[in-house]
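Bug report (template v2)

What were you trying to do?
Predict the complex of my protein with flavin-adenine dinucleotide.

What happened?
Run completed; filing so the output is reviewed.

Input:
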Amino acid sequence: MADRVQVGLQVEGMTCHGCARHVESALKGVAGIREVTVPTWQAGRATVLADPGVTDDTLTRAIEAAGYRARVRERRAVGEGQRFPSGGEQYDLMVVGGGSAAFAGAIKGAELGAKVAIVEAGTIGGTCVNIGCVPSKTLIKAAELCYRSAYPKFEGLTACPPPSDWQRVIQQKDELVAALRQGKYVDVMKIYPTITLIQGRAKLTGRRTVTVNGRSYTPGKILLATGSLPWAPPIPGLAEAGYLDSTEALSLPELPVSLLVIGAGAIGLELGQLFARFGVRVMIIEGGPHVAGAEEPEIGKALTEYLAGEKIRICTNVKIARVERAGTEYRVHAVIDGKPETCVAEQLLLATGRRPNTADLGQTEAGVQTGSRGEIVANEHLQTANPDIYAAGDCVGDPMYVYVAAYAGGLAAENALTGAGRVYDLSALPHVIFTDPQAASVGLTEAAARAKGKPVETSVLHLKNVPRALASRDTRGLFKLVAEQETGKLLGAHIVADEAGEVIQAATLAVKFGLRVQDLVETFHPYLTMVEGLKLAALTFQKDVSRLSCCAS
Ligand SMILES: Cc1cc2nc3c(=O)[nH]c(=O)nc-3n(C[C@H](O)[C@H](O)[C@H](O)COP(=O)(O)OP(=O)(O)OC[C@H]3O[C@@H](n4cnc5c(N)ncnc54)[C@H](O)[C@@H]3O)c2cc1C
């Protein structure tokens, strides 16, 4: 018999904060109700924690008596120490970290009826909402709107917007971050009465012991979701000179006149273009042979061309000898195109990647192994070398994306609490670089497919062959498809285009479900959409699409 039941209700007729309060007090008036949550931001939802004898009928009738209509969405047993192996200890699951992986894990735990603690040392919500995806993407959009309105024909930016605009944009960004943190993390936690937030830094102090603020807990299972931190390479003088990381760059109080970006991965490219579009003179230097080094070379080449078109100087194969700060400027002494050069800028942004945040976590005491980059070593079920400890999100290493972290958190919590044995599967994982135009990919690159010994065919289609791009008067971009030679099965799709991040989803389904290039050719794609480029790129395996009539026929 469960100690409690958690009942989720769908309520019709609630239109304002006052309605939410009426429903809340109606439910609180029912005998046997322990906790009630009616979030005002999520219209129509209510959750109660009640004694097991409280029936669904009693709850819906109480809401109807208050003038609303209701039905029960779900009812779950919430038993301490009965369904889970904690044997009556305080928490069935303790999640270390309060970001996306942690929240997904905690919610999954609560949905399964577990009593869960989230331990967060910093700001609830973690990287994505506070300092990552949300602030960067809203600033990128602001920069794009500013750029497009000033330069509708993409002629290259030469003038600065007034500096006061930057402060306004930063303020609006901060407001959005605060609203989403509240709506998507703080309020969501309130829906789950069995989740407790403990503010403090957690340390593993034994095989199943976590110490926070001097107090030790022995939860049934532990989920590590401690995220990642910016990583700096050992460049002479860098630590002494100082530099901006992405977090600081996204909150600069004033725009610098010039910015030098070290690293041309997703974050370096996105932030480099963002600042250039706000009128900052930007130079991006990269040690590898092309920008966006993990992508197809065609993608790196295209992005270099488009960013250079916006007066961003991009240098690859750069060897940095030393960094120094002289007065108000940074000086980076490097070898560029075989010649020594000193690059000078008012600000220096380091965008050389992130590493798992696992220092001083106490993993050795707990029998948890970490790899050479500090990543927590976990098996295909996200279980560490200690069977009671699981790990998810950036702390297990690449790929570091929020949707991967959320998926991993839920999967790890379920495996930890139920032994479901779900397998962590990242095949057919799409990813996006939020430059303008965007770059998006799924599946294998040509080189990766060949390295696996697969004979492949490829097609490359430039956007000047895509009607949507012509109609929009923006033909920057390309589609590249990689297919298995023998079967025609689509192995990878790589796109540079306006909103490529939307288009890639169709290719993701094709790769995930093993479709062939011919299946894409035989599928309707609406005329004058960017995704039609996928069909045209598929046709390019057989025909010269520049000679086709309208609608790829
Ligand atoms: C600038 C930038 C832009 C990005 N843009 C995108 C994007 O567009 N799309 C995308 O998918 N991904 C993006 N990412 C990546 C994405 O933000 C991360 O992959 C994701 O947020 C990781 O989630 P997580 O839960 O693993 O870690 P986090 O969200 O970092 O959460 C970890 C939490 O653990 C806490 N913590 C650490 N150690 C302890 C401890 N010992 N005790 C208690 N708490 C602890 C930390 O304070 C932190 O809040 C971006 C990242 C950055 C930096």
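What did the reviewer find?
The first strand starts at residue 4 and ends at 12. Residues 96-102, 119-122, 126-128, 132-133, 136-137, 201-202, 225-227, 246, 267, 357, 361, 393-394, 400-403, 405, 434 surround flavin-adenine dinucleotide (CB under 6 Å).
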